[in-house]
Amino acid sequence: MKLLEDRIREDGTVLPGDVLKVDNFLNHQIDPDLMSAIGEEFARLFADAGVTKVLTVESSGIAPALMTGLQLHVPVIFARKHRSLTLTDNLYTATVYSYTKQVNNDISVDKRFISPDDKVLIIDDFLANGQAVQGLMEIAKAANVDIAGVGVVIEKSFKRVTKWCWTLGCTLKPWPALRH
Ligand code: 5GP
Question: What structural domains and CATH numbers belong to the chain?
């Protein structure tokens, strides 16, 4: 997606540990026009996949997931990383190793929000080693729902070449070219 690739080129910076910082349009400040375009693109790609819900993980997956849900006219569920008083024990849970924070997080979805007749579209902001997406897939499996597909906004393609998900803005090669 050219719009996104241009934006990564323009505003992305690389931190030590090969972390791409895009907090002026995705991870902290959010560009609604860009998110809307991303939502349209995912909705176009998965238009015929029979999606009934979009599934993501807080917090940075929420913006692209919400825009996708808006276009597909389906609810958006975000897995929560922290237990809250309102999140009871009736949960699907998976453990995910955080690429950026280097800690394990339990992510949870309330069982009330996914049922076996759902078909979920998994959306996230980044794909690095695939842990976050895998955690969401585990939750889908535990809930016995079909996965309509996986879409990530930025794939760190220097790490792997994935054939099983749609990525809109592959990070650029050679990776060091982004450093400034
Ligand atoms: P994975 O689970 O695929 O290893 O990493 C994906 C998760 O880690 C994403 O949900 C994202 O929040 C975070 N992440 C991984 N790499 C980067 C990166 O380069 N920049 C930012 N901002 N987040 C990243």
Answer: 2-178 (3.40.50.2020)
